[in-house]
Amino acid sequence: MKKYLIILVCFMSISWIQAQNFSGQAYYQSKTTVDLDNFGRGGMSEDMKKQIMARMKSFLEKTYVLTFDGSESVYEQEASLDVATQGRGWGMMMAGAAPGIEYKNLEEGSLVQAHEFFGKSFLIKDEIPALEWEVTNETKMIGAYLAIKARAVKQVKANDFSMMRRGNRRNQKSDQAVEKSKNAQKTGPDGAQVAKSDSLSRDPIDQIELPKTIEVTAWFTPQIPLGHGPGEYAGLPGLILELNADRTTLLCSKIVMNPKSLPEIEAPTKGTVVTQAEFEDIVTKKTQEMRENWRNRAGRRGRGK
Fold this sequence. Notes:
Blueprint: H1 2-19, E1 24-32, H2 46-60, E2 61-68, E3 72-77, H3 90-97, E4 102-105, E5 110-117, E6 120-127, E7 134-142, E8 145-155, E9 165-166, H4 169-186, H5 192-200, E10 208-209, E11 213-221, E12 239-245, E13 248-257, E14 272-274, H6 276-303
Parallel strand pairs: 6-14
Antiparallel strand pairs: 1-2, 1-13, 2-3, 3-4, 4-5, 5-6, 7-8, 8-11, 9-10, 11-12, 12-13
């Protein structure tokens, strides 16, 4: 197997110059799973889970198109007749976590992402994340292409709410018990303050967490010796055909190589230009604003009891 991979790498190196003349489009089916068993108090009925999943389908299942040439690519969601509404609150947070058009320039190592966040347009200009890919000996066929498995560890962005999950219940119960104990010392016999604090302890933002890192698995093909991939992923010695990151899977369903006509490969230009760090700061402040608004409403409900 190792000898076979060495031959493939040599073939890829010879083909690299030829690859500069390659262009095409790759179509990816994206699916994200959500564990609803960990959300809600007392669990959810199967009917409730089905209703929620149906409403979240536009966020969890999408089709993307990667248009590429030798050094540049544009990755964007395929146009659809269905118009998904972002809604308000958490719906807008999840929508803001997913970028719109993503442009990469492999020669310059640059990445430009368009984001719509709470009605405002942003352009995040930064470098392509430099993942330390570990190429393995595992191979499989994806359609007509031989693919090789690679692994990497990725830092999770502070604004990536697509990876949010329910926090550790044991720690939450412990924290709530301590909080209730403190409140019991402060309240009178009517228990009004306890009711207020109990509402505040159920702040939805306090009940979720984001992992600091995730493992990413990619399957790339040396038959298309370009370092492109879906989204911000790149840097492997072949086009990425499948990618698994946390609970999201991207699978290439169709490739059109060297078409007679190809859409323009250009970076998006609409929006306020920010770095990734600046955008994360904007998201953090908006999250804190939502937290304060929720707590104020919860406090008013508690005082009204």
